[in-house]
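Recap from last week: sequence in, structure out.
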Amino acid sequence: MLKDFFLNEVKNGINKAIAEGKLGQMGADSEYSLMIEKPKNPDFGDFAVNVSSLARSAKIAPPMIANTIVEGLNKEGYTATVVGGFINFKINNSLLANVVAEILTKSENYGKPEGVPTEKILLEYVSANPTGPFHIGHGRWAAMGSALANLLKFYGHDVYQEFYINDAGSQIQKLGNSLKIRIKQELGENIDFPTDEIERKNYYPGEYLIPVAKKFLSEHEPTEDVQVLSDYAKKEMEACQKALLEDFRVHFDKFYSELDLHNSGKVEESYKELMAKGMLYEKEGAMWFKSSEFGDDQDRVIKKADGSNTYLTADIAYHIDKLRRGFDRMINIWGADHHGYVARVKASIEALGYDPNKLEVLLGQLVNLVINGEEVRMGKRKNMVTLDDLIEEVGIDATRYWMAMRNIDMTLDFDIELAKRSTDENPVFYVQYAYARVCSILRNAVAEKLNPETGEKSPAPISEAELEDLIKNFDNDLILKTAESAKSLILKLEEFKSVIVLSAQNRTVYTICRYVQELAQEFHSFYNSNRVIGEDKELMKSRLALMVAIKTTLKNALDILAVSAPERM
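Predicted structure tokens:
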């Protein structure tokens, strides 16, 4: 990465100056920090490094420090000037040509870092109750979780994606009771869900159970057995959820059942381990976990007075099971309403002898649907706006992109009307159109030209063989013909490498969305000012190579987001 390159150049210059005794009282063991940035005024250069922090050790003025460092730089491929305590670097065209050459050489691997420490990661997300369709909040976790998995894999990690099925609680019986009412309605009985608000919470009155009731009656005789109905409804809901996830380009390696966790004995086993370690005590008939000893703000009940487990009991067992399956790191995506759970789960991990820092929790904010400028009110049980509804309205690409384009800790306003527009105001259209436009340029370069008046055909500006050879055997000198006019664009292409590293390390995917929008903007700006296909064949080849580099980088980024890259629009 160019940022790393220039930082290393400065560090080498510092070491050389220290060795020659030119940095005052500064020695080889002196501490300092360096920051690299892009100057606000491009006339100053492409990158700037502030060396003012060295003044404390050197006991000399920052401008003198900067000038001394610059004297020792090799300046191959760049020029360096000093402004105050800043060293400003201006890139020569040869370095720009190297960027394009690297993209053409690495192709689908462009942007992947080399030699970084990698981990075996279990990424858990969505993890919804199997009691109904996904709401749009689930859609955000699905889009962001799968994009994060793609990003971490691209970075080099070994990522395992898991969906934790919450199928062991009372909600499954409520689902069975709800199906029972829908079946009776199908049989003609005059029955409905309770109207009392408190009692109604014991049911799922959504209309999505009506087709389930019809299907049950087509396959089975009517029954009053709630367990049978619960199992059937759960299976149907799980099947619907899994089918939608596949359509939404979300692919889990495992659907982990909470019920199976209980039946395996692992929940009771972790409870006994905590007991054996002296981490539990009895109070008011319940068993409490001493989570406050490990950073939680209070102790937590893990077994109620009636002998039943709390949700935390299974969560403890589940996370310990993750670690025992050999994962180096666990990353969970939870809704912001679960923020209080983080400390208690980490406390249980530490209490059982594991490193609590192996658990990372990304807390996500809600999604607000906006239609014609008005926010749509939603409820989990009635009048629900489902992920299915949203996808049907705006499509998979727009849904995935919009869900990922804000940081997970920010509330997302999803503007449905804007997401459907084929205009530059719609960010996903803007990016996809840039990709399609590049593809169109490359197609036109190798296509015969037809005179609409005479019907005569003229040869293609460049043959397919020539274009293929241009990509495979790229000559760095060729890009020099367009490097100066494309400098801003090429630097944005090079930035992709640092975006990948920072996005993976910070667990963010919105930064990928922001990057492709900026790259699309740079491309459109370049294209509007520079003719790609023209009479100067060498210049045309140079710019076609640049088009291939843009296409490659956009495709790599969109693949991470699992958003399609259409060649025609």
